[in-house]
Amino acid sequence: MFTMMGPERARAWTICLVAALGMTLYGYDAASFNSSYGLKTFVHHFAGPNATKMDPNLLGAANTAFTCGSIIPGYFITPSVSKRFGRRVAIFIGCFLVVIATFLQTFAPNFGTYIAGRLIVGMGHGFVMPTGPCYIAEIAPHAIRGRIMSFWQVSFTIGAFFVYWVAYGLKKADYLGDWQWRTIQILQLVFPLIVGIGILFCPESPRWLVERNRIPEARRIIRKIRAPDEVDAELETIVAAVEYERANINHGDSYLTPYKLIWTDVSVRKRFLLCLVINGGQQVCGNSQLGSFSTLIYQQVFADANTIFLINAIAASFNILFTLNCFWLVDRLGRRFLLITGAAGMAAALLCVASVGVGIKPGPDGHKPYGEGVAIAFLFFVFALFYKPSWGATVWIYTGEVFSQNVRAHAVAMASQWQHVCSAIVSQFFPLFLQNCGFYTFFFFAGINALLCLFTIFFIPESKGVPLEEMDTLFGAKSHTSEQRPLGGDAKGATLAYSGESGDSTPRNEEDKGSGAESVGPSEKNTPSLPSKPS
């Protein structure tokens, strides 16, 4: 991949991939929890030597603890840390917290301590998950931003893949005692150490540096990640946008300013509400529950625990391939296409799951016939085929790219943490919902996906190929880099300001061409003189 591009673009790819590995923390955590409670040694350690399974209420509490731990820093701490100290610092703090929590979970003497570890893991994710998409969006070239950001979700599947195959290998290792499940927990150290150390060798976001008035440093970094003929134009555009926001929008730099702007700026509020819906939809469409409770679901289908662990491992392998479809499609077909077809396909798959699950009665042992069980597992694979490149990957891409620089850290953090609010609510009742309603549960999730499909058709505008500094015009606001008129927010338009193959951002008319220093700022007096280009 890197041999077909210049050194600057290869460097940008490398930096973004290091940051994207931050999502492996989430993938590993979800899969490790899902795998651990299916092991007898885990159940015996926390529920007693005579227990056969964990209490569904305790499983829901453990999942909710992670979610609540993520919400508090995600909403109130991470945005300010990211804005004041930089994206890299926020990511590093999150990795450090996950390392601490891993030891707490691994050596937990009781389930209360294990839940405390889950809470701290959630806090770590509350730093990494909102910051990673911002950082990648600010480093990636806009023409291939979607492709690069798709690896954020690919990393989730890599983390899950690693866990599920380790768990499958350990399934018959009862002779290890508590180290059967503790091995799964302690290996969680691998990814936060890789990301935490790797991010220290990555540069800071040039957009953040401009916001902090460190323009010479921003120029040096842009020269490393952009072709020589792109450096001045990009830096001028970033400076113009930041200065416009300072002069006309921000009205101060207090802790509360970005939060106020999210609600008082009509265009930003529109983007924020749209992102709340799609981020919430990502968590209530059924995938989050399948990821955390697939073992519980398959226990209603298969009698053999080895079969369940094998299916989870095979699913994790296919999920990597399914998610990579986003890499090929997102900058060709656009964000809207993937979200619409994804939701429609997910609704159809879950409708079939529910129909088969309800229509086929369990045998004398309380499980479905083996053939019907395989059919249900296959339909969950079909669900993942539609989910992974669409509501899995594309939601993160869209959320990370649509906000302007002055509110990006806060808006992305709040929108992405809404995932955890929705997940906490649904995950708390899902085990009991499944226990009491069985496969009727999936009719509910099929209906949600149908609604998400309709919502996208009528309300989500296309953002493919639009530079970050021009996103404001897409949502009906004045451009922060030129005097062009707002382009409106017609949700049905494929790309309102930009068109072309593979994310080409060629303006459609002469009016949109201004990108030079004389036209990028709101006025001569508001745009500082850029440092002269080094000879």
Automatic annotation (TrEMBL):
MF (Gene Ontology): carbohydrate:proton symporter activity
Signal peptide bounds: none
Keyword Cytoplasm: no
Keyword Membrane: yes
Any GO CC annotation of this UniProt entry: membrane
Main location: membrane
Locations listed in the record: Membrane
Limits of the Major facilitator superfamily (MFS) profile domain: 15-464
SUPFAM superfamilies: MFS general substrate transporter
PROSITE patterns named in the record: MFS, SUGAR_TRANSPORT_2
Compositionally skewed regions (Polar residues) per UniProt: 524-535
Pfam families in UniProt: Sugar_tr
Spans through the membrane: 58-77, 89-108, 114-136, 148-167, 179-202, 308-330, 336-358, 370-387, 439-460
Region (Disordered): 479-535
Reactions accelerated catalytically: myo-inositol(out) + H(+)(out) = myo-inositol(in) + H(+)(in)
Annotated membrane topology: Multi-pass membrane protein
Annotated keywords: Membrane, Sugar transport, Transmembrane, Transmembrane helix, Transport
Family to which the UniProt record says this protein belongs: Belongs to the major facilitator superfamily. Sugar transporter (TC 2.A.1.1) family.
Protein name (Swiss-Prot/TrEMBL): MFS sugar transporter
Source organism of this protein record: Trichosporon asahii var. asahii (strain CBS 8904) (Yeast)
